[in-house]
């Protein structure tokens, strides 16, 4: 493949250099959209000028847009460039809990497809602490979490489709069609009010569908913040998943 893994893995430096308060400001914008300086100042117990300086810093880094009295998300081009690193900091404890619960549900020695996304990476980090899995993934980031001496790791190669390390394309779909996998762990951007599991990138949706067809069981991994949202296109109805794993324990 023609990409540089070292450069790819170091592109999150901008996000990691934020102060704790700046990270929270960015999180509020990503989750809520437009936020006001007044509300942020009240939340943090600091002056409006202090919040304004944080917003200016974040805007100069290209992480959000300044507006009169507040801040909002960046445009589509910048969002695509920074999406993965920024999303990793949003609802991080919840994603880690989802990942831990999902990993605990996977039996030893299983063959597992791991989708792309920050919640899946949290699960992969837990699975990587165990041995004997046969891992299939279309995520470079996820693959690099595993020790190949402890688990068999198969990266299903295709076209690099964004800074999140996802691989898509016809060759990925064809390879998945030839596989029989025990469990597919699938991520999403939204679950709408009609119980449709949805995402924005149609190329990635095609990969998710193929992985689900290749698996004996499909598990949906998502935080409860994804519910009640909508996205561009449907992956599958929620009933298509044998298990839906969130940070909230269900009886």
From TrEMBL:
Residues 18-73 form the HTH deoR-type domain. It holds the Pfam family DeoRC. Keywords: DNA-binding, Repressor, Transcription, Transcription regulation. It comes from the Bacteria. SUPFAM superfamilies: NagB/RpiA/CoA transferase-like (SSF100950), Winged helix' DNA-binding domain (SSF46785). GO terms for molecular function: DNA binding; DNA-binding transcription factor activity. InterPro entries: Carb_Metab_HTH_regulators, DeoR-like_C, DeoR_HTH, NagB/RpiA_transferase-like, Tscrpt_reg_HTH_DeoR_CS, WH-like_DNA-bd_sf, WH_DNA-bd_sf. This is DeoR/GlpR family DNA-binding transcription regulator. It comes from Celeribacter halophilus.
């Amino acid at each position: 493949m023609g990409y540089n893994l070292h450069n790819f893995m170091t592109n999150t430096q901008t996000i990691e250099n934020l102060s704790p308060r700046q990270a929270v400001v960015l999180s509020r914008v990503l989750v809520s959209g437009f936020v006001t300086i007044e509300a942020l100042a009240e939340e943090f117990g600091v002056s409006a000028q202090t919040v304004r300086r944080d917003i200016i810093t974040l805007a100069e880094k290209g992480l959000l847009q300044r507006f009169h009295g507040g801040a909002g998300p960046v445009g589509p081009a910048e969002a695509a460039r920074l999406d993965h690193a920024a999303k990793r900091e949003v609802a991080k404890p919840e994603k880690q809990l989802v990942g831990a619960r999902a990993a605990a549900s996977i039996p030893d020695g299983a063959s597992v497809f791991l989708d792309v996304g920050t919640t899946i990476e949290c699960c992969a980090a837990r699975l990587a602490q165990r041995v004997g899995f046969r891992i299939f993934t279309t995520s470079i980031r996820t693959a690099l979490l595993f020790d190949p001496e402890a688990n068999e790791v198969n990266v299903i190669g295709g076209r690099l489709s964004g800074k999140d390390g996802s691989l898509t394309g016809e060759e990925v779909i064809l390879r998945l069609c030839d596989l029989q996998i025990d469990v597919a762990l699938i991520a999403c951007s939204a679950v709408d009010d009609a119980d449709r599991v949805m995402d924005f990138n149609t190329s990635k949706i095609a990969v998710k569908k193929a992985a689900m067809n290749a698996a004996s069981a499909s598990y949906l991994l998502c935080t409860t913040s994804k519910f009640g949202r909508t996205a561009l296109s449907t992956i599958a109805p929620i009933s298509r998943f044998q298990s839906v794993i969130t940070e909230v324990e269900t009886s």
